[in-house]
Amino acid sequence: MKILILSSVDYGLNGISIVIERLYANKIFSNEDVTFVFPNTSEIGMIDVLNSYGYKVNIMNRNSNPMKYFFNLLRFMKQNNFDIVHVHGNSATNTIEVLAAKIVAIPIRIMHVHSASCKHININRVLKPTLNYLCTHRFACSQQAAEYLFDDRKCHIIKNGLDVKKYGFDISERNNLRAEYKVNDNLVIGHVGGFSDVKNQRFLVDLFYSYHSEHPASKLVLVGDGGCRKEIQNKVEKLSISQDVLFLGNRNDVYSLLNMIDLFVFPSIHEGFGVAPIEAQINGLPVIASEGVPRSIKINDNVYFLSLDDDISVWVKQIENISLVRESNSVEKVLNAGFDISDISQNILMLYQELKGETACK
User: Fold this and answer.
1) Is 43 helix (H, G, I), strand (E, B) or coil?
2) Which of 22, 132, 238, 262 is the most exposed place for a label (fewest CB within 10 A)?
């Protein structure tokens, strides 16, 4: 099969890119002809990961000139005669990719949504009927994401998988990291996510400030980068808590860093799913998430949801009352919940084969 994977976001350390890399950076698709197109790449060396599996990776700038992008994409699709186009994105603005695939008569046109909201609400509302008309199949990371973009149309829910066993708790790693970062005697609150309005680190810093005022033997660890990082760093400085907030930037060893954390907080305004709290649960960590995060992320018993409309004191009280005992058998629980990336990749390949077989019979 000739498969084209299209992303509407740059290839970097962001949610969609990580999902794409985890799905295809394996030998499951070794017998298929897989090509990727990204608008840009923000991390040097990441493309090498996909290239190492024999995939072709192309960069086509999507944002600076959408019309030029559309015609370049049209030409590229026509030259390569793909069987399947699988579009990954967050909104109906991906109509541009699915329309190009329709024009060149690619028989299987999959739209895969990774969010339950987007920035351009009005554009999304206008384009949504067209997108649903043009795509032949629909994938979503959660039921909430499916309803947001596809309403009640038929849709395959594809869980955001990962290498589950890699994220299991390691006491040796915990001891080493807590010594390295000098947090041995502290309660460590952790968060993983790109710095953005949606991930809501502003609220998290306010929450930590309120908690830290009453419990000074506490630290906040922020893993990730993004457009809002400088603003958040300035806020931390103004609150005079710089010594107690660690900005670790983008990391490829999140599975290791989770070991030094005691409690994971994820206060997103909205999420299509949310892989980070799944990673935290594999490690056994208690999790406090906003109600903007789908309930389907809850696997362990020590996961709690609070409203962002609640007074911050409600969140502080939850931190004070939560048990910091790690969940036992968390790796097994997450595996049983269907988050193993090898199984999910295999299921996607089987779906491709099934869809191609159906098309051949028409």
Assistant:
1) coil
2) 238
